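In the current project phase, we have settled on a layout for protein records. A sample record is reproduced below.
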Amino acid sequence: MRRSFLLVLGAISFALSLASLSARILESAQATGPARAISRSYLGFDRNKYPGDAALGALRKTFSFCGYWLNMPPGETSNTWQGKRDALRLRGFGFLVLFNGRLYSELKSFSNPMRLGTNDAAIAVEAARTEGFPAGTIIFLDQEEGGRMLTEQRAYVYAWIDGVNSSGYRSGVYCSGIPAREIGGVTVITANDLRENAGGRKIVFFVYNDSCPPSPGCTVSGNLPSPQHSGVPFASIWQFAQSPRRREGTASCQSNYDADGNCYALPFQRATGIDIDIDSATSPDPSSD
């Protein structure tokens, strides 16, 4: 009887110790979980010319989303993406909805860049509706020029943002995440400059920084780069490889740029003409993040 009593007592003591240990493990996990959490990254591509319907299946095997231009992309004479939303959606692509903004050389010739920004926002919203993008979609203003924004640029960009945000759509900006050196040795990152002077405006940031490091170069293998590692911690999307590459910033890149300086995703090689920019995002559909 005494032996049975001791066995029962030992079992109870072991169970209580195990419960206490489990509680401590759970408490520790709850305390450290958020700090250890790693947000998943998704791969996407963008390019100024639509790659063609026949290429979508192969591209979708690698990429979760793609860029989609609402107006004429930089350097192009037409918009070949127009009317292609359904073809891409049926293949399962998410979207980076892009609107080509104005260069400083254009803005300085306008007496009222703010009014121009408001007008361009209305054009972007109408194009998004025409292409079938629902209210709440994020539209990214393509701001190509880096460094500190000049007065005319800020007036245009913020007016465009206000116009989009007031329409039922949401605004984002594609801009540089690369430090630009000013006189006196000061460096400015365009994304930081826009955010710090935004006056509380809500902006989603899509940054480009193909410098190695932090970029892994032209690659879609290995650990997917997180937008937070782009040099702009608040970025939601990171364009980490461009076609053509900027040779001054990518000299130390080890990965897969072609001899012509472009980035080609397998199975596409130079002969196909499908060179791309490669992006990572915190969502498989950055237009609705």
